[in-house]
Specification:
By secondary structure, this protein is α+β, with helices and mostly antiparallel strands. It contains two helices and six strands; from the N terminus they run βββαββαβ. It is 18% helix and 24% strand.
């Protein structure tokens, strides 16, 4: 089994037949930092499908962070197995600098709308 998939079922935050979402081992100063991992040992997968699932997960009521960042694998530890990190916009200074230089999409999940 690939090292990236060595998570216990009890750690899964989300699972379907293609992917799992788990909290990352190193939070790097974030309150919320999760990893979407393809169940197949492939270097590429459908980013949009994974992004949709992370977005649904992030928007659950108990997630109070108004923005999340969906990162490209520029600094990925496991380049041979598809995964993406999603985190809030509040990391350590070193982490925030790395996020700045990593291609990413920042998505607002809670927008205050006033007519």
């Amino acid at each position: 089994m690939c090292r990236i998939l060595k998570y216990e079922k009890s750690e899964f935050l989300y699972e379907d037949k293609y992917m799992i979402i788990v909290p990352t081992k190193n939070m790097k100063g974030h309150k919320k930092r999760v990893m979407a991992i393809s169940k197949d040992h492939v270097p590429n997968s459908n980013d949009m499908t994974m992004l949709e699932e992370i977005f649904k997960y992030w928007c659950m009521d108990y997630f109070d962070e108004p923005t999340f960042v969906f990162c490209k694998p520029t600094y990925a530890t496991f380049k041979e197995h598809w995964h993406r990190i999603a985190c809030d916009w509040n990391g350590t200074p070193k982490e925030m600098q790395q996020l700045y230089y990593t291609p990413h999409v920042a998505i607002k999940t809670k927008v205050k709308w006033e007519p």
